[in-house]
Amino acid sequence: MNRAVLKSKEEIKLIRESATIVSKTLGMLASEITPGVTTLKLDKLAETFIRDNDAKPGFLGLYDFPNTLCVSPNSQVVHGIPNDNPLIEGDIVSIDCGAIKNGFYGDHAYTFPVGEVDSKVKILLDTTKESLYKGIAEFKVGNRIGDIGYAIQNHCESKGYGVVRELVGHGLGKTMHEPPEVPNYGRRGQGKKLENGMVLAIEPMINMGTHKIKQLKDGWSIITKDNLPSAHFEHNIALIDGKPNLLSTFMYIDSVLGINSSQETPFIRSEII
Ligand code: MG
Ligand code: MG
Questions:
Q1: Rounded to an integer, what distance in angstroms lies between the CA atom of residue 51 and that of residue 28?
Q2: How far apart are the first and last CA of the chain?
Q3: Is the pTM of this model over 0.85?
Q4: Residues in CB range of 188: below 8 A, 6 or more apart
Q5: Average pLDDT, the chain
Q6: Residue 2 domain-assigned (yes or no)
């Protein structure tokens, strides 16, 4: 099956409910991510928080993944397994989280700085987040999947960064990964047509250096081939009445980190759902 599963507005409301639990989980974690915290502690906090919100962790047991969070510090791109190692000042850490409620998944991610980070690394984080919103802006009727990837790739490669090829965004709904695949690279006007009722997880994975990656021996963690840092940001978005509608939000994170951003504003159209 490689046709997108189109959702009704009622189903999109349910996906937004699950995504909101993930958004709040990431917001809760934002205040815990400080030098000295272990990634396993973050994992336990997230699992408790999700269950307290009458949902279940979306990743735990999915494809036999052992934890609630994918926690990927520094040169790890995605799919890192939480462990007892403390984070240290100057690290960055991608936290990817899923939740399932009412039979629908939410799935999104944010890369956090741990204390003060190097200015070059901060620019990598900012650029990757900007590219996510540039991709979201292309998720509209009249465009194709390649328009999303083109916008992300163009923004990041113009800064000299590497765009990961092997891992991609995806459709989202009653299963975590549905068609279509959403590459973070592409050509304008290429790929599947974007349709009302599509729900996508758009998730640029952007490397400071080479786009090439390798897998660690744990069978999960993906790491950059040159060991330079990698950033990852992910949102869930529904296509309604021709335009993108954010189902996830970073506002809970922003309020903890003191970030005043209007990046989400064009994509929040809550009157529709
Ligand atoms: Mg994810
Ligand atoms: Mg995803």
A1: 14
A2: 28
A3: yes
A4: 146, 147, 150
A5: 96
A6: no
SS3 243: strand
Q: What is the domain count for the chain?
A: 1
Residue 234 Cα to ligand 2 midpoint, Å, equals: 7
- How far is residue 59 CA from its own chain's centroid? 13
Name the 3-class secondary structure at 141: strand
Contact status, residue 169 vs residue 163, Cβ threshold 8 Å: no
Closest ligand (CA of 182): 2
Domain of residue 71, residue span? 9-267
Residues 6+ apart with CB under 8 A from 71: 39, 42, 43, 80, 81, 82, 93, 94, 95, 96
Centre of ligand 2 to C-alpha 156, Å, is: 19
Residue 212 is predicted with a pLDDT of: 96
Return the ∠ at Cα 10 (arms to 56 and 179), rounded to 5°: 70
